[in-house]
Amino acid sequence: MKKIISIQGIKGAFHQEAAIEYFGSEIEILECITFQELVNSVEKGKASFGVMAIENSLVGSILPNYALIRESSLRITGEIYLRIVQNLIALLGETVDSINEVRSHPMALAQCTDFFKNCPSIKLVESEDTALSAKQIAEHNLKGVATVASKNAALEYGLDIIEPTIESNKENYTRFLILEKKSSKEVADASNKASITFTAKHRPSSLFHILQPFADYGINLTMLQSLPMVGKKWEYIFHADLVFATLPQLYQALKIVRKHASTLDILGIYKSQNLTDNNQDITEQEILN
């Protein structure tokens, strides 16, 4: 039986490409227009896993998604980095000169600013999804309208790539998280990365004391993002990614962090795509206790 994987967007979206890269081609895609729908689909058991974009190497993090994960009943169990190649896609026979409007996701448009600087007559319109824009162009035969999307989107909806690889920076990667329902199962042996969230006490140097144990135990802080806490003025919640050599190192560091943080929650312990394995076993509950 094929695994059902929820993605944000429709077939032809980069989310689908990331899902295939991580799980293989023998999967069934469940299309979700919004990230909230994606989370709901996994929580309700409509899909076994969700694939969610979390940050891009050019334009930064998708901040609302941190809150969606934190407030959900899901856990992070993996990640995939996907090289993003953006293409200008339109109906067969169109050219760059015949296009007067480009509809695409705001992040896709932001990744192609250099190209559009040279096309001042083209109106840029933000849409919900890159592949959805491609589908609408094909279904409604929208002449003079293009989208910024993947090669797969062009193939999926019978459109033409009228200008390939228009992303401003060729080192353009998006990081996707793999989400599934929380369980009490042990962390995978090969795990070497953790995503956590915490709040700091209102005391001098409180953030310093939270971060210091990671340095002491040789843990690399690869991401630190603060978000305002809804309903609390000038208070913030932090999200962090930690890369570690062994699970006991993480265990010891988080034991100390708990003493200085007001709250601490582990969103997931998993294997980084690019780093080496380790062979220690430990459960998330043991780390938090």
Chain-wise SSE layout:
Layout (H helix, E strand, L loop, with lengths): L2 E6 L5 H10 L3 E6 L2 H9 L5 E8 L3 E2 L1 H8 L3 E10 L3 E4 L10 E4 L1 H5 L2 H5 L5 E4 L3 H11 L4 E5 L1 H7 L2 E4 L9 E9 L11 E8 L5 H11 L3 E9 L7 E8 L3 H14 E10 L13 H5 L1
Parallel strand pairs: 1-2, 1-3, 7-8, 7-9
Antiparallel strand pairs: 3-4, 3-11, 5-11, 6-9, 6-10, 12-14, 12-15, 13-14
Helix pairs in contact: 6-7, 8-9
Q: What report would you give on this structure?
A:
This protein has 289 residues and is an alpha/beta fold. The chain folds into three domains: 92 residues, D-Maltodextrin-Binding Protein, domain 2 (3-Layer(aba) Sandwich), CATH 3.40.190; 77 residues, Periplasmic binding protein-like II (D-Maltodextrin-Binding Protein, domain 2, 3-Layer(aba) Sandwich), CATH 3.40.190.10; 96 residues, ACT domain (Alpha-Beta Plaits, 2-Layer Sandwich), CATH 3.30.70.260. The chain has ten helices and 15 strands. The strands form three sheets. Strands 1, 2, 3, 4, 5 and 11 form a six-stranded mixed sheet that branches. α6 packs parallel to α7.
CATH superfamily of the largest domain: ACT domain
Calculate the mean pLDDT score and round it.
91
Query: Do you know the CATH topology of the largest domain?
Result: Alpha-Beta Plaits
Helix and strand sequence = EHEHEEHEEEHHEHEHEEEHEEHEH
Cα end-to-end separation: 38 Å
Second-tier CATH architecture of the largest domain: 2-Layer Sandwich
Instruction: Tell me the radius of gyration.
Output: 21 Å
For the record, the CATH class of the largest domain is Alpha Beta
Which bin fits the share of residues in helices?
Answer: 25-40%
Approximate strand percentage: 25-35%
- Main beta-sheet strand count, sense and barrel state: 6 strands, mixed
What would you call the shape? elongated
Number of helical stretches of at least 4 residues: 10
Please report the total strand number as a whole number: 15
* Poorly predicted runs of 5 or more residues: 275-289
Overall structural domain count: 3
Structural class: alpha/beta
